[in-house]
């Protein structure tokens, strides 16, 4: 009912053109039906394939033998009376480089006092030409709230149970809550379709359905381009060390997924390359069972002035539609280090990002990762931008043992068969990624030699490699000194 009141208010304000953006056209037409009944107005609908049709209210529309063309229907509306609501479905392509149609719409809008027609343009996305903006307003359908989402899921579960009386539906309350949370931001029709698919797939709603729901939601929202969906999240058990970060994340799980006004907004993970920052970002999404979106900062840039900032705003808006979610901004400094040769683009990008970080109230949790603090603007590092700045250092001996154990288990080797303390001692100054590569190299070696892998294979791989921390010793030490008094250790 709130949509009816809100749309009726716009109509009562005598706005002649309304852009109604939605993927759910049937719901939009049903809303207009209710508004027409409430206001006792004539109600017509035009589409390119069906022409102009009266949908049950007011005087009959004049009709031609064939469906009216985009220009003809506007001429017909100019001659038609009395006042009516007129829905134009997918009319937006006929406004691009077609001045005749733009002028006809402007004529109808300027003659509102005589005609009284309200034209509602319905499509998934509508950009009004500049000539029409002062005569128009935008309207979006309200999306289902948690109570309605739960009701839809129960309806689909009940329908399945009636069709399969001999087979009980398997689920639990915790999974249902996660499902409701991850279906936010979709239309009722899309929610029903996804819930039905999850139930009918295997007669159950389980934890394994959540990632597939998230991926389908991402595809429905059409988020191609600079924003990508990371299907494979991780578990913190796959991350060695980072004890303090894990504790921080665990204590905030409930706040992250709630509607609390003070819920955490994001963290910056600063540290040495290969130290596990990217894996930590994936693990946060996995821990909270939230979709993980990755923002490609490099792909934002466009040669045309203003387009780069537009790309960022669109990506952030799309992330809000996926909320609650984790938005991973990888190697943030590369997207903001344009210097003086980018005509101010990097500064405008920074301004757009800072404004959004300060003002957004949606459930988008930002995880930004960076390797070089010198590439980060000071404005981004001040208190309040992120909930916390964690420094991810090279792993200590105990953590290196844990990392060796993780990567051996992942490759079906029993860590108990290896002398992990010796490997940890030999791998001093190695990052987690470099330790993983040493294990991989050892596997290749023993496979080529057709012999079982042991400590010597890994030791050889370690001694044959020079870690980044030695090659870039001065730079990494400088980063450590900067972080000592300015950040929180992730370990």
How far the N terminus sits from the C terminus, by CA atoms, comes to 52 Å
Strand content: 5-15%
Any idea what the radius of gyration is? 29 Å
**Average pLDDT value?**
87
Q: Class by helix and strand content?
A: alpha/beta
The stretches of 5 or more residues where confidence is low (pLDDT under 50) are 57-65
Report strand order across the widest sheet: 7-9-10-11-8-12-13
Overall description:
This protein is α/β, with parallel strands linked by helices. The protein has 23 helices and 13 strands. Helix content is 49%, strand content 14%. The strands form 2 sheets. A 7-stranded mixed beta sheet has the order 7-9-10-11-8-12-13, sandwiched between helices. It is elongated, with a radius of gyration of 29 Å. The chain starts with a helix and ends with a strand. Mean pLDDT is 87; it is low at 57-65.
Question: Tags for this entry?
Answer:
7-stranded mixed beta sheet, 491 residues, alpha/beta, single chain
